[in-house]
């Protein structure tokens, strides 16, 4: 695939030029932004089993990481503080390293079946308080570390993106078998494809076994 070369003439590089492209912001879009976790935000968080965590390193490198657990896995400590357990992963630690470098974070909470979402921006710290971590144990397994977030802004996000995408419409669900498996993709991307289908089957079974053993 040929590399795309962008004409600098069509690059928007300042906020004034950007805002000229759009209508003025609606008054409600400004007023909806809160600085504390009110009862509606707390209820949304309690129902959510999934969020996306946005972080950025001090050098500007950005990352978004999915986080999932049983509904209510994110604990609201007080009206300005919440905590997210860090579960076992691939040990890249991208989000955690970024937080050490730059504590500003953004969270997007999702509830299956809901088209609207909850957005929270704040400042994060990594904590290993044993009493706090113990409250987030699942199946007798305690997280090694958690992300404590002081809230700066909280607001509900409208349903347009989820409705455009038909995210929860079963008639729009795609067949996973139409793409290679995760293991197959990784092997291909790393130029280490297995010698035969039997070896690939073994690797995929091992991955499923790892999921079973290391979710918590």
Automatic annotation (TrEMBL):
Gene3D superfamilies: Electron Transport, Fmn-binding Protein, Chain A (2.30.110.10). Residues 38-137 form the Pyridoxamine 5'-phosphate oxidase N-terminal domain. Pfam families: PNPOx_N. InterPro entries: Pyridox_Oxase_FMN-dep, Pyridox_Oxase_N, Split_barrel_FMN-bd. NCBIfam families: PPOX_FMN_DR2398 (TIGR04025). This is Pyridoxamine 5'-phosphate oxidase, FMN-binding family. It comes from Roseibium album.
